[in-house]
Amino acid sequence: MRAFTLTASLAAVSVGFFLACGPSTPPPDSAVGAGSTSATVAPPPVDTASAAPTVSAEPTASAVTSASAEPVMPATWKDAADGKQKGMFMKAKVMPKMKEVFQAHDAKKFAEVTCKTCHGPEHKAPKEFLPKLVFKGGKFTSEKEKPAMFKFMHEKVLPAMVEVLGEKPFDMKTMTGFGCGGCHTIDMAK
Ligand code: HEC
Ligand code: HEC
Questions:
Q1: Strand (E) positions, 10-141?
Q2: How far apart are CA 16 and CA 22, in angstroms?
Q3: Residue pLDDT, tens place only, 8-18
Q4: How much is the pTM?
């Protein structure tokens, strides 16, 4: 996803570059307007050599901005500061691990494990996309209703996710940490 943005912005840079280079003599006004820094740098706009740095001043600035935002892979989930970094972490760390876990459980059913497996086709928060769990009388109703799935979730999916996110396992006493509720909405029925 990030790669597209980078490519797009690079494409925009080169298009802008060529367009701007089109006229043989760039009007002095536009050279100044291109960026306050370029005004001091740009010598008399005579030949293409001087035009190039003037023109590149603005696109370079934006390319640098996006480039510095691109490749920063957060070391841990907690270091992921924004949606971009979270997405990167998901792709690089969460996906491979969870794919392995789901496929080891049922290679046929989970032949395809993608972002959609948890986020759905419209990329919602997993809690909004995945089935709601009902917690009743101190238990998840699914423990009885879908024992195999419950067991798999409890023994494989949750621990793997806790590990890959570097979270603490959910603790019923303190009600903190990452539990089933990290991916599912939990309906606390009485
Ligand atoms: C195994 C389930 C799972 C898979 C697969 C998965 N995610 Fe996530 N993702 C989650 C959960 C759970 C959260 C919320 C974690 C939290 O903050 O507690 C989350 C959060 C996110 C967030 C931050 C919240 C937001 O929407 O801004 C992004 C971005 C994200 N995921 C992107 C991705 C992308 C991109 C992929 C595919 C490469 C992916 N996820 C695959 C479970 C998953
Ligand atoms: C990393 C995210 C994640 C965590 C954590 C998680 N689940 Fe799930 N759960 C899923 C996904 C993804 C599915 C859907 C799998 C599929 O496509 O069939 C699912 C499906 C289920 C289902 C089947 C629901 C249905 O109606 O088919 C049950 C039951 C379930 N989870 C229970 C739990 C329980 C209980 C826990 C905590 C022990 C838990 N899950 C933790 C991601 C998670």
A1: 133-136, 139-140
A2: 10
A3: 444 443 333 33
A4: 0.75
Choose which residue among 93, 112, 119 to substitute to test ligand 1 binding: the one with the highest number of ligand atoms within 8 A of its C-beta.
119
User: What is the rounded CA–CA span in Å between residue 2 and residue 88?
Assistant: 8
The domains of the chain are located at 2-69, 77-188
- Asked if 90 and 119 touch (Cβ cutoff 8 Å), the reply is no
Cβ neighbours for 72, distance < 8 A, ≥ 6 positions apart: 85
Closest ligand to C-alpha of residue 83 is 1
Cα separation, 28 vs 42, in Å, equals 10
Cα–ligand 1 centroid distance for 119 (angstroms): 7
Query: Rounded to the nearest whole angstrom, what is the distance from the C-alpha of residue 151 to the centroid of ligand 2?
Result: 10
**Residue ID of nearest Cα to ligand 1 atom 39:** 115
